Structure formats: C-alpha cells, structure tokens
Amino acid sequence: MQLSKGGGPSWQNHTFWYLVQISQVLVLPQKVREMAGDAVNITVIDRKTYLLFVPNIPMEVFENRNPLYSMHMPLIPAMKEDHMDFIQGDVQGIDVETQTVEFLPVERLGAAVNRIHYDYLIIAVGARLAYDKIEGFHEYGHTVSDTYYGNRLRHYLYHEYKGGPVAIGSARFHQGTKTRDLVPTAEAACEGPPVEVMLTMGNWLQSRNLGGPDKVTVFTPAEWIAEDAGQGIVHALLAKAGTMGFHYRNNTHDITRITKDGIEFANGPSLDAELKIIFPDWVPHAFMKDLPISDDVGFVITDMTMRNPKYPNVFACGDAAAVTVPKLGILAHMGAEVAARQIAKDVGLMNKELADQPMKPIVDCIGDMGNNKAFYISSNTWYGGNREVFRMGHVPYLLKVQYKEMFFRTKGKVPDWGIPVADFLTEMLTKG
Ligand SMILES: Cc1cc2nc3c(=O)[nH]c(=O)nc-3n(C[C@H](O)[C@H](O)[C@H](O)COP(=O)(O)OP(=O)(O)OC[C@H]3O[C@@H](n4cnc5c(N)ncnc54)[C@H](O)[C@@H]3O)c2cc1C
C-alpha cells in the first residue's frame, strides 16, 4: 500500500502525516478529516466493506424483516467522499515500537500478510462477542447482535417457537483493572439490548396471542440489570417491568451452560426456557492481548482523551478501548470526537484548551419496546453525574427509526445537532 503525501501544512518538522485507523466507526475517520483537514492522510483498514448498524437489528427481527437487507451500509463511497484510503484487511498484529500494523488482505483467499507504517494509530476494532465460550450456545442459544443470528432468531420465532418460557440475559463481562481510576467496573458489557429484547418479546407474545410478559425472565450476572443507567432508572424500569408481569433474576454471576431445556448459571438455580436469547462476554481481539498498550485482559489503555499514556501516537475508541464501559455506540461516538480533537491539536489546527476537554461519558440509549413504542434513557449518575432521564412512548420509537435513516442518508454524517435535538424532543414530548 503506497501512502500519499498529505496536502496540508507542515507542522513540527513533519512534512506529512500518516494515519492508519482501523474501524467500522465511520464517524471516527470522518471526525478526524473534519477537524484535521488535509494535514493527515487517512487509511482505514476493516475486514468488511460495510458498516453493520447493530442497534436496530432487534427491531427488524421482531417485525419479521431480515436485518441483512436493511442494516448494512456501504463504507467505500463514504470513505471516497472524504478522500480516505480503504483496505479490506484483517488486522493481525500491531507493533507500537516500529509503528506498524500487520494485516491480511481478505478480498480474496490466499493473500500474503502485509505491513503498513503509521505515524498515528487509532484502534477501533470493537470486541469479539464470545458466544463460542458459552457451552451449548451453538445448539440451543439465540441472539440479535448480527444479521445472521438475527435472521436465525426471526426464523425461530415465526416458524418453530412452541410458546414455551423465554429467558433473556447476559454472560459475565471481564473488565481489565488498569483504568479503574477512570471508569467504574461493570459485570455485564451492554445491558440495554437485553432490556430492549425483554420488552419487545413481551409485546410480541401478546400481539400473537401466545401469552405475554409473564412468559419472559430477564437475568443479569450483576446485582442490578443495566446498572450503568443509574439506580433511579433501574428501579423505575424494574418496577414497571414487574407490573407488566416480567420475571427478573439477578446475581447469576455467569452462564455456565445452555441446554435444550434452559440455562445453568454460576450462581443460583438453573432457569427453564424454550427460547434462550443471550448476550455474551465482550472479549478483546487475540492480537491485542499482551501488547504494551493493552490492559490485563487486552483492551487498549487510554486516558479520557482516548490517548495511550505510554505511546501518545496511539489512540483507541469504541468497544476496543478499556475506558469504554459499558460497550455502547454512543460512547464510541464521543470517543471519536475527543480523539479527533487530539489529532487536530497535534497537527496545529486546534488550540490545547479546546482539544484537551476529556470525554465525559453518558449512557444514552433508545430501545425498542414493540407496538411502535420505545424507551429512552439518558444518564450519567454511574459516572458520578446527576443526569437521569427515563421515558417511554411513541416519540423515542420514531427517533430510533429516523436516526438510522438519517445515518444512512448522510453516510454517517448526522449533523451535530441530531442527537441533542433527538434527546430534547424525547424529553419534551414524553414528559409527565
Ligand atoms: C444487539 C445490540 C444492540 C445495541 N444497541 C445499542 C444502542 O441502542 N445504542 C448504543 O449506543 N449501543 C448499542 N449497542 C452497542 C454498539 O453496537 C457498540 O458499542 C458499537 O457497535 C461499538 O462500535 P465499535 O466501532 O467500537 O465496534 P464494532 O461496531 O464492533 O466495529 C468494529 C469494526 O472493526 C472491524 N474489525 C474487527 N476486527 C477486525 C480486524 N481484526 N481487522 C480488521 N477489522 C476488524 C469490524 O469489521 C467492524 O467493522 C448494541 C449492541 C448490541 C449487540
């Protein structure tokens, strides 16, 4: 891969900058281009040529649409628009001393391993969703985290489901210990989706005269489900779900095994279920383990400007970063913005005061509930803040659908006012 000379000004004796960014977070290279302009050459390496819009997969599944047809957005036209190079490659190693990334071109089988040099590296490869570590998942488990599994569940619901009990919940998340001073420790990686699927499942059962919420048990390895949403919201949510008839099991510690008849846990009795919808441990990629930039489990250590303290030309954003807890898209977006400001500062295009504002994490999510309704959570109390907003209704649903449409239409460039306006409308129109 030939890197071309950057067209922008030269700074600090560098005549040009190379930046290799590994990510599906399209927003990240776009933000870097927006803030650092032509002072950087950007190369994106991803094993896929499309972006998978994960948050709306459950909605497609329960509304009996194959998510394969609606949740893929082509990456290459968006990259071309912002003059970025794109390599369809599988990253297999990073050497932070020689500043090289090792990758295998994957467009055709049989390619030889290649290396690319970087001046700056932003690691945004997400995490492995470790279903393969759960005994019995392959035979008896279901999930909604990609289009294959989503469509498999859709088929099960509409063609095989016999009306038995349903269990929905997470395996234990194993967070590293090196960033404990920056973010709290979570026992589940991302519990918005199990809450969303629980509510949608209850509505789906009712709408098909197959029962209702009382057939559904949601479980968590932690003391509280979705604890990162803050105690006030979790209590309100559990009270509401209890009134609707859902069952709840906490402190399961981990999933030990999935069988034909149910789920066995590390703590407490097993749960009988015909349908088992599972969210696994989010595990760092094998090539990230034992790198000098990684924590004790393999997530990339950064400060809250998403910069690695030992190797300041290395950044991480999204699920791959140790400080991204829970593993949420909104935090990936916030991290992208913060990292892009740092790069802009380094190339002399942004002043220190503006660039050095750290990420202030917030759990912001809209989850489908079925019947054209959704819940909206916006909270930072888990991180020590005082914002706690929880709403349910038709407006968040409309915004969830519209956000995805806007994301695809603008090739990822949802205007900066998009999320705040969505938040504002949700809060105003669902008050009371
Ligand atoms: C069912 C579900 C619903 C969710 N709903 C929400 C929601 O409503 N709101 C929210 O904020 N978050 C939600 N999340 C979480 C959100 O999807 C993730 O936090 C977000 O996708 C993380 O983005 P990322 O770019 O860090 O990682 P990913 O989205 O996983 O992207 C990683 C990219 O890196 C590429 N890659 C991986 N390994 C390699 C490699 N070795 N070489 C080259 N490329 C590689 C992949 O192809 C991919 O394109 C949900 C998650 C699930 C499972």
UniProtKB/TrEMBL annotation:
Stated name of the protein: Sulfide:quinone oxidoreductase
InterPro entries listed in its UniProt record: FAD/NAD-bd_sf, SQRD
Species this protein is from: Sulfobacillus thermosulfidooxidans (strain DSM 9293 / VKM B-1269 / AT-1)
Domain of life: Bacteria
